[in-house]
Amino acid sequence: MEQQIEKVNAAGQKDVIIINRRSFFGALMAVGSLGMGAILSVPVLRYVLYPLYAKASGTEWSDVGEMSEFANATGPVRKTITFAQRDGWREVVSAQSVYVSRNADGQLEVLSAICPHLGCSVSWQQAQSEFVCPCHGGRFQADGQHVFGPPPRAMDKLTTRVQDNKLQVRFQYFRSNVPNQEKLS
Ligand code: FES
Prior knowledge:
Strand order of the largest sheet: 3-12-11-6-5-4
Number of domains: 2
CATH superfamily of the largest domain: Rieske [2Fe-2S] iron-sulphur domain
Shape: elongated
CATH topology of the largest domain: Rieske Iron-sulfur Protein
Structural class: alpha+beta
CATH class of the largest domain: Mainly Beta
Largest sheet: 6 strands, antiparallel
Strand content: 35-45%
Number of helices: 2
Bound molecules: FE2/S2 (inorganic) cluster
């Protein structure tokens, strides 16, 4: 079965369009294939473009230790935590040192051991009751406040929570050698 349609084109001539059942089903198949192709391409495109919109950091909570471990501590306690970072398709698990310390109100805080000057690792010196950075002699109080040397700010405090009696931290890197804490993604 076939149908003819006459149309006048821009040049004023008649075009005859013949539509038969075969061409109709052909067109239907073509539209169906295109639609199916579009649907199937969505997950592929999402996978390919994932690194463009995925966050580079997005660290999760890391266990620092049981709360009871820190109850009677007389100074900052050094702990090593592990955390996962996603970078595009890769997930990298890293380890970092942190210190569990008490602020002036007696509340537990977790400080990054990365010196805010140029990124060396500070360590707690019990005899001096200070954190000391081995690279340029930066010094900090037990609560992380800057005491001496080139670091332009206090030690970086990390976000914490207590879950099932465990102290947890969300590890974060910060920009070096700037006066205010600036998160790095
Ligand atoms: S890196 Fe710590 S004082 Fe310079």
